[in-house]
Amino acid sequence: MVVQVSVSAAVKVTNGPQLPLDLTLDPESYTLHSSRLGAAGDANGADKDEHTLPDGPIVLLAVTAVDMETKPAKVELTLREDTKTEMTGALLVANADAVEQLVTAENARLVKIENKADKPVTVEILTCRDGDDE
Fold first, then answer.
1. H or E stretch including 92?
2. Cα 83 from Cα 104, distance rounded (Å)
3. Share above pLDDT 70 across residues of the chain, in percent, rounded to a whole number
4. Cβ(134)–Cβ(35) under 8 Å?
């Protein structure tokens, strides 16, 4: 099975520059992790999740967080050691060296996710793995 991943986006500044960010990748494989997190401070601890990224070079890391109405939601990611990153809605890193800087740590490739919204959210993590460097 051939895997092809397309990213189509642009950064636009009002009355300023526009940078097209179109990208096509042919990764060896991809993984998708989805988790439903309860509202922040959930007494049962259901507002947190953990996911281990696949071994090998990751050429794309995409994370989305949305509430029940599919509006962008705020979550906190721990991608490297105890470095926390807050994001609202989406995070996209499409460069193997940049992804490696974000995820390499002593605690393997564990991503911790915590809901910071006052209502449940769905978080999805898509990774594309490149087999060329192995």
1. strand 90-93
2. 12
3. 93
4. no
